[in-house]
Design goal:
Helix content: 40-55%
Strand content: 15-25%
Shape: globular
Number of strands: 11
Order of helices and strands: HHHEHEHEHEEEHHEHEHEEHHEH
Distance between the termini: 53 Å
Length: 370
């Protein structure tokens, strides 16, 4: 770690500690006058000055990085993000850094992972930056390089890699949805355990491949408690469908009153007047993350770091918010006030889950489709 990186890390930690309210003993009963209290005040003032300096410096990029990226003049991004949102990010990136031309390869996560591994095995890796849910498969194979972006300070720990390899580009919230024309809000399920109430038998819609959510419940509750819940839910005569959008659409159409849906999809449908809503008190709200990282064998490593910093920045995340995406940053306004992270108990599903979906899918199908 360079001296500059060390200073940034220390400042970030101090800033987090200051704002967490860790000021125990800030003012103590005087023993030798006011000198002790003033010293603490001075220390806090100096600490805040360092933190503000760090926060201010994070708005811009180090001149050395920009100059090095300018010499490379190119960056290649592999992503599972849809083509419209990817292009919107790259258009703004090129507007901000016109000396860098971007290339995009977009594919589904599984297809993208297979391509990356195939290219690496053939010795012709082309990616500079990568975004996919199975990111830790690349990390374990030493196909990523650590880049502690200055933007990391804006992300909670559960939305970034502890070793500094990645942070989430956007999040997806799994929530309890309901049709308010069929279920009064006061009567709608508030927590996951409410779904197994016998009165909801035959009234719940679910995606038939709800594997990541299933895996998240195992992590959050432990295997014994989670599988007890799933065995009870399996007796509820579920309406099985393909995809969360379909579940939400059928629920709004009155095919069934309840369902497991994505919060951002519900909010989008609500804006169009659809009779659909979601419980704000689920314990917890399970979150699928979509990490972004710099490739270990990047041909344009400086431009790659610049792109990663940009897509994680407030500027880049605001673009994704405009596309109805949920940001992991704490300083991005939520899509609606009820989606404020401070109001929800969020549980990030381990990104390693996506690598072991065969096991989770087998367990899920044994419980629900035996």
């Amino acid at each position: 770690m360079t001296l500059d990186e060390l200073n940034r890390e220390l400042a970030a930690r101090h800033l987090a500690g200051f704002w967490s309210g860790d000021v125990t003993g800030f003012v103590t009963q005087r023993s030798d006058g006011t000198m002790q209290t003033k010293a603490r005040l001075l220390r806090c003032a100096l600490l805040l000055t360092v933190a503000i300096s760090f926060a201010s410096s994070a708005w811009g990029q180090p001149a050395g990085l920009i100059e090095a990226a300018k010499k490379e003049g190119k960056v290649v991004w592999y992503t599972s993000l849809n083509i419209n949102d990817s292009n919107a990010l790259l258009a703004r990136f090129e507007q901000k850094y016109p000396f860098i031309k971007s290339e995009l390869l977009r594919a589904g996560s599984e297809q993208l992972l297979n391509r990356i591994l195939t290219e690496d095995g053939a010795g012709r890796s082309a990616m500079d930056v990568v975004n996919l849910t199975t990111i830790n498969a690349l990390k374990r194979r030493a196909l990523l390089q650590a880049h502690r972006s200055p933007e990391f300070a804006a992300f909670p720990n559960q939305f970034k890699d502890p070793d500094g390899y990645w942070a989430t580009l956007y999040n997806i919230y799994y929530v309890l949805g309901y049709n308010p024309k069929m279920v009064q809000p006061n009567d709608a399920p508030k927590i996951w355990d409410d779904f197994v109430n016998p009165k909801w038998r035959g009234k719940i819609g679910m995606d038939q491949e709800e594997y990541e959510w299933y895996a998240g419940t195992l992590s959050a509750w432990g295997k014994e408690k989670a599988q007890k819940f799933h065995r009870a839910l399996a007796q509820q005569q579920i309406h099985w469908n393909r995809g969360h959008t379909m579940v939400a659409q059928l629920m709004a159409a009155g095919e069934f009153p309840l369902g497991i849906v994505y919060a951002h999809r519900v909010e989008s449908m609500k804006k169009s007047g659809a009779p659909i809503d979601w419980a704000k008190t689920a314990d917890p709200v399970f979150v699928t993350i979509s990490p972004v990282a710099v490739a270990a064998k990047a041909h344009n490593p400086n431009a790659a770091r610049l792109l990663m910093d940009f897509v994680l920045s407030k500027d880049g995340q605001t673009i994704l918010r405009g596309a109805n995406r949920i940001s992991g940053r704490l300083d991005i306004e939520p899509l609606v006030p009820d989606m404020n992270p401070a109001k929800l108990k969020l549980f990030a599903i381990d990104s390693g889950v996506a690598e072991d979906l065969n096991r989770y899918s087998k367990e899920f199908r044994e419980i629900y489709f035996r």
